[in-house]
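User: Fold both of these, please.

Assistant: Here is the first one.
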Amino acid sequence: MNSAADKNNGATDTEADGPRSIIVMGAAEHNLKHIDVTIPKNTFTVVTGLSGSGKSSLVFDTIYSEGQRRFVESLSPYARQFLGMLEKPKVDLMTGLSPSISIDQKSVSRNPRSSVGTITEIYDYLRLLYARVGEPHCPQCKKKIEPQTSQQMVDRVLNLKEGSRIMILAPIVRGRKGEYRKEFRDLLKKGFIRARVDGKLTELEEGMSLDRYFEHTIEVVIDRLAVKESERGRISEAVETALNMAERVVTIVTPDGDFTLSEQFACVDCGISLPEMEPRIFSWNTPQGACPNCTGIGVIREFDPDLFISDPNRSLNTGLFQTDQWKLKRVFTKNIVEKYGFTMDTPWKDMTQKQQDLLLYGSGSRKFEATWEGDNPEFEVQYKGTFKRPFEGWVERAKRIYKTTKSEYGRGILEKYMSAQTCPVCQGSRLRPESQAVTFNEKSITEVNSFSIKALREFFEKAKVEPRLKPVAEPILREILGRIGFLEDVGLEYLTLDRSAPSLAGGEAQRIRLASQIGSNLVGVTYVCDEPSIGLHSRDNIRLLKSLLRLRDLGNNVLVVEHDEETIRTADYIVDLGPGAGSEGGEVVVCGTLDDVLKSKKSTTARYLRGDEKIPVPEHRRQPNGRFIELRGCKHNNLKNLNIRIPLGMFVSTTGVSGSGKSSLIVETLQRELARRFHNAEAKPGKFDEIVGVEQLDKVIVIDQSPIGRTPRSNPATYVGLWSPLRDLFSSLPESLIRGYKPGRFSFNVKGGRCETCKGAGVEVIEMQFLPPVQVTCSECKGRRYNRETLQVRFKGKNIADILDMRIDEAVVFFEGIPSVHRRLETLCEVGMGYVKLGQPATTLSGGEAQRIKLSKFLSRPATGQTLILLDEPTTGLHFADIKKLLEVLHRLVDLGNTILVIEHQLDVVKTADWVIDLGPEGGDDGGYLVAEGTPEDIVACNESYTGQYLRELLEPANPDKVSSTKQSTVTIAGEGRSTK
């Protein structure tokens, strides 16, 4: 593509259809140093560089932000009032910019009602398909429902208890917004005097209207009468009138409740009528379609018996139930358990199911007699009495107290023993039974919604439609299959439509949005992507790249922040920022085609691409020492009764194609179970049989890329624990002792030593009436955060504000004589954070920087050698050079005796691991098996391992006899063979 050759000359050239390049001049967001960048249009452009070099500042905070702002400003004043003002980025000039769409990892909905089907709009088309061509069935007898005549409706009414009073209503409006002035006026003209409006019976009067912004239901009272055979004619007339008024639907109000009869959908045998077939009855977000028990969520919060059991090895006498220790000592409990054949010293795991149910749910209606007496000799009055009552059980007792207590504190304690349980009415489908009774090709919408994308395509390709319904069904099926194809193109065929949005990984959510944008067929748009390769196995990456190139070929600009080597080599144009990170970055090192970048001598990226620098393969790998954590019978999500042993004291990598079950095994099962045991966490782990070897650990640490703080007041010094010893140091100086300054004097978060004009923030926020708020340096302290008196206290000639403004590598030398401070600073430098300032706001740190600061905090602590450190894709946002530093830190932690367990696709990490657990072989239903495990060389020898196929280019193949490779294989660990199934 010759446009890439225009990299710096011809920037102002234009064609008939507009500028040929996006020109950025004087970009100065965050650490950008007034850089100028020219990006050819209609290209696939990758912006790369070290973590913290300014990539996101250029792409998201400058180009995308300005494109979004200009688009909003092009709208009418009426539309802009709903969108608010967008802040102008710090840039001198930008030309050639088109409307921008961000496809990042943070845009996934956290609403539990949102699912893959709703995000992709496939479920919307499913609802339309079932409403137009679905076959209704009775939810009870499952017979196909045929049209119901008005005479059958009359017979149904006359089958009610004779003499019961009923009302016959015509539902003319059902769940719709509006004022309905005209409807009320017409009803009065026709002689109707009463209606049930939103469930309340009211008399009609002149000028009636409703709130236009809320949904309403209006049911006209046709007649009120008693059920008698002699009233057949009157009932028949009223039913016929209601059917004519309300689109062939009538509602009957009886003393036992209401029921609706439809001329189209009713079961003659069961007397059940289905509502009118329309898309909203298949939506769990509407009252017409949502399950009445869980209101469309699919789960309900209930007391979970598993959470009541503190330890299966404990008995009643040793604290089996931690919710109520005192009640365990009652003679009443002792007498009852002995009658059921066990004692107060019987461990939970040795009890029968009947005995366990007794303790959890009580004895039901069976009563027991017991004598209770006070045996405390300190009491003057000794109580004694006999009573007879059922045994309540701990779960039932918790339910009773939760319903009756008025104490929010007490309810909060009990809620720790509750978890999300599948709704017993809809079985997690979210829909009411009537909606689930409608089928298409013998499958309900709930069944189809549970299909994976791959299975969904196969279902609809084989679907048969009656000739008379084809004109209606074919356009809908075409749209569904089109969206399915886009999802398959980005490697998401393993996802199911009913997968909830909060459970999606950042990379999965980003690729779903990418698939949606491909389907929209927009032209002339600037698409901005943030590391779309996250969460993708090497096998799936090529499909993602094809999708990005397809967006480009439609006539769009595709701008990607990425470190993946294959993505960089595929790009039409590359912008490499650096040369370092933080204050040492923010410059354009090189930009141009791949050949231009490879010729660069200054570019760190180029050195890794050329092979001048690389991450080495360890000369010696650690061997299993006989210590393991073993998870048995893992069945969460798609895990196939998996048995996994994780060797301790080693660097262990869990890998596999996307959707193979890595997160289900490590995060949702192992991590949650360990968090429960070590930190009393409330999250319930995935289903498994047992875990062995936990007693060999003393703690579990999870290190991710979430921010170290959500406000500018958080910074590296406060996070790693530097700030307290620094404040103690300044408060112990002679000047502080003379003035009586305590450590709090040197905190910018409390009154005393801070500047009260800016409250220690260093900046003031000025509200602009028609513009976004503006932050300006505090006029009183000039951004120093402290008042004049506090800044007069100095250590080695520097005050507390000077320390905050000091780079970490400078601070290491400055505080060399103070061990408590120097040790923490040294570990920050070891993880490559020397360029960051001590007081740099946490909100300006990248994900990779935040992760390394967390690692340094752990490194600065005394090592116990019995810690398990879990990391989920730690290379996210990291350059080759950053990955090299990260691996050095991780291996150092293992050398101290700790265990590192990572979920990772990055081959440079996998090749340096001591032990690899490879799941698969595919994603979704075809995954969840142990494909192979062992050293990276063993994985390479496994022919069925996709990871091994890509590792083969980096490693010498191991002896194939060392590892078996099929789903039914046995694998050697420390001399023991075991089945993976």
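And the second sequence with its predicted structure:
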Amino acid sequence: MLGLKLRDEFLSPHMRDTAIVFHRDDGSGALDQNSSDFLNITYPVADLQNALVAISTARAGLPVVLIGERGRGKSHIMAVLHHALAKPEEATVWLRDWGRRLGSEKLKRLELPQGFLPITEAVHNNEYEYLWDLIFERHPKGEKMQGKFEGLRQEVPPRSLLEEMFTEQPTALILDEFQTWFDGLTDEAGEYGRKRRTWTFNFIQNLSELAKDRPELFMLVVSVRNNQTDAYRQIHRDEPIRVDFRGATARQDRKQMVLHRLFDNRSNILVSDIERLTEVYATERYRLLYSHLNAGEKERIKREVMEDWPFSPELLELLEDQILLSETAQGSRDLIKVLAQVFRALPHDKAIITPADFSLDNLDSGVQSLVDALTDGGQERLREIACRNLAAVQEAGVALTLVRGMLSALWMRSLSAGNHLGGSREEIHLDLTGDVVIDDNFFNDELNQVKENSFNIHEEGMPPRLRFKLEENARARLLVSSRNDKHFEDGSDVHYLLQYLTHYFMPEASEPSAWPVVLGPNWTSRPWDEIEAKFRPEAWDRPALVVLPESPDNLNAILGRWLRDHLNKYRNTVRIILPRQDKTNIFADPDLMMPARAALLGQKWGERDSKYRNEVGKFRNELKQNLSGRYNRLAIIRQWNAQDPDQCTFLFEDLNKNGPSIITEVEEKIRDDIFALEDFEPLVVEAARQNQTIGALLKELKEPPVGAGANPIPYLGEVQTYEQILRIASSGRIYINVNGTWLGKKPEHSNAEAVLNMLKNKASKRGRELYEIILGPPEVVGSDAMASPATSPPLAGYGTLFPINPASNPTIAPPSQLPENGCQGEDNQVGIVMPGADRPENVPNGTPLVSPLPVVKRSEEKTILNLGGEFDVWGMESTRKIAQARLEFNGLTVQDIKQLLRRLPPTTRAVLEIKLPGGAE
């Protein structure tokens, strides 16, 4: 460091405290030293110069009050005043030398008074019960005057006695920590109790007036922390000279005082050498912290670095303003010792000393002195926690070059008692800068890794600042623990991610049109091991959105083999969702597994501590963000070959949506872009020709056709497929039989859309009722038999997985006997002649007998309150006669039935039928 040397007193293994103590038993106190030696380590700051002027021959003859909180250098100034009065010749030489160095005419011309006796005491030590005891003990005429005072039998020495004493020996009374001492004085109760506070108050008034009226005999210098006490107010009555440590140069003066106190040869080093050594730091300081200022400020920023060298301005400011001036610290007297230790611990080629040089795990680097200066025990705990975080980062096996300095700087900035706790990214970046520029990306990457592997670093405020806290950072702790595989040896992390992904694809406000089936890590060998029972193939009641964890190569062959080996039914209902090809397997991707693990641990630990529970939602949001755009392809079967699955081919379509919207996008894409009604219609027409049920047709559609090279028709699901069937029926190509009633379009009816709306209204069925609907060709309406489910050979191209039993076709009344509106149902029943039925004698043989079938309306199970609304749904007027009505109840007690019967009109006639469980009496 350019040959910079510490003073000898800071080189010993056991460095003495630098706090100003007036007297020590070993003679090393500030007033015990030779005046020239003490003045040699003193820098004439502006406040000291003002104090010297106040006691000089040009003084105004007023009391002098030094006002400032602890650590501002008041005690040091008082010690200098003592030496200046005790040895004015030596002090004058010192003043002339500094006047030459600083180019100060004021220092060169300053004249100190001769012949004054300085009596200097830190009165807060309470060595003397009364101030006059101190004066009597130290003054050469004190013993004589004390005898006179005692003979007067007064509580306070009179002014006349003091003037007589000071006439024989002019005196300067210098009292340090005056406020602390005076505030501790009390009056004893009772008429005869000692009134120490009152008597001292009166005595101070005498001294203050004497200093003003007889400056040639007496000087009074005191130090107080503020102007809010009775002690100050009493002195202030005589308009004292104030030295308040608030001047424009006070901050820079204190820095120069510290540097002069520390180093023996700091002033001998060339400024040009310092500028060259600190060039990198000064340039980075402007870029990182002050680039918002105009370019003209750059020189000032650089000059501050040179003036504070070998320490960075940020370090001195941090120690003085935010750490050592806290109420628990000991002030700048400890600042000197702290800086001496960190300087001794560093290599000599160090360019500049920053907060990062207070190495956490090296107590010799000034850390211990700093902790000792901060008497709050929590600061030592904070250092221990910071050390544990350093160990955690190192144990994580992350190769970081800046970690020690980074955490050391962060710890230093976390000790702050000011308003700017912790440090910004830019400040920490600068703390790590010496004579080499650190790349921004490199720094940010290492800082992010440090944050991820530590657990007491918190990021707070706007703009955000990083800091250490005694309490754990819940997020950081969860992330650190997430990297420990031992927590997840039971596979709970995989299970959690599967659950989350299922929820990710599942709509929140409605039933999904397809079940999201997210496959686990063993999807190629044991795909159903990790899947909940309700999402396994045997439970599928709608299409399945099978989500793969990866996109393997040779997709056609792999997906073909997978469908053959792991699905024995419903293969044509599968929609396969693939992640992007540039993404790794989701169960090996830290961007997904780490937040999933952290969310899982947050749920577990949150049962004991809410701060962990509060982080769960944040990690789930991270998962959601990281999943955005990951699943971007749909695959469905295009050609199926069960014998040689390697020959299977799939149709691939791009996807643009995320989350639950993927299901909607997939279904819309299949319905609008892939499904072709012209391919589907012949299949339905053939099923109608064979009088198949909707259920039989749906079962066949759920499987790909057996024949090699046959193209399956995309399965739309029950609802969408049935809607397409109704659309075909509305065109007149087929008829449907719902509850014994044929519904369809008359040949002469031209409005197919009106027929479709009628069919949707009258043939809206679900579940078993849907499966039992019979398909028939148009000619079924003119046949002479009733339609019934037919069991004909399988439809062309489809397999025999669901065989159909043979049955005869019904015959239906001819179209000439049908109603005019062409839409059969409800009020317009079709006449049906049953084969072999008895015929009335007056009906000619061969003439079909019209026998209207009863219309049956059946509701789903609902509450009594809602059942009445069914008549409105069915479009039935209140006056219409009902042939028979049945109310069916399940699980009622005898008492429930009795109460129900009492509520019916008493003249109502009905038949009661009950069903008891088997074996009941």
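Residues 196-213 form the longest helix (18 residues).
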